[in-house]
Amino acid sequence: MAVVEVTIAPLGTATPSISKYVASCHKVLAEARDLKYQLTPMATVIEGDLNRILEVISKMHEVPFADGAQRVSTLIRIDDRRDKELTMAGKVQAVVSKL
């Protein structure tokens, strides 16, 4: 299982706000019932099978284009641990337990 952080941002739109694009991308993500995800102030974190996550991110990347953007920047950061189960909650708990 992987934990992936993704930020999808349209470039060159009429307004500096991108929240409507983020909301549209999250509608695509919400349809992927086999993935867990968390919206954060700066990105979205997704947990699940890496290939499935990348498939959904590809669909999310197309959303701003469908909404009129001419250019889209997508940043992806992958944490794919194979020696033990990796989850969003587990990563947070590992730090909290040391505080």
From TrEMBL:
Pfam families reported for this sequence: Thiamine_BP (PF01910)
InterPro entries recorded: MTH1187/YkoF-like (IPR029756), Thiamine_BP (IPR002767), UPF0045_domain (IPR051614)
Domain of life: Bacteria
Gene Ontology cellular-component terms listed: cytosol
Domain Thiamine-binding protein: 4-95
Range of residues in the leader sequence: none
UniProt-listed NCBIfam families: MTH1187 family thiamine-binding protein
Family: Belongs to the UPF0045 family.
Protein name per Swiss-Prot or TrEMBL: Thiamine-binding protein domain-containing protein
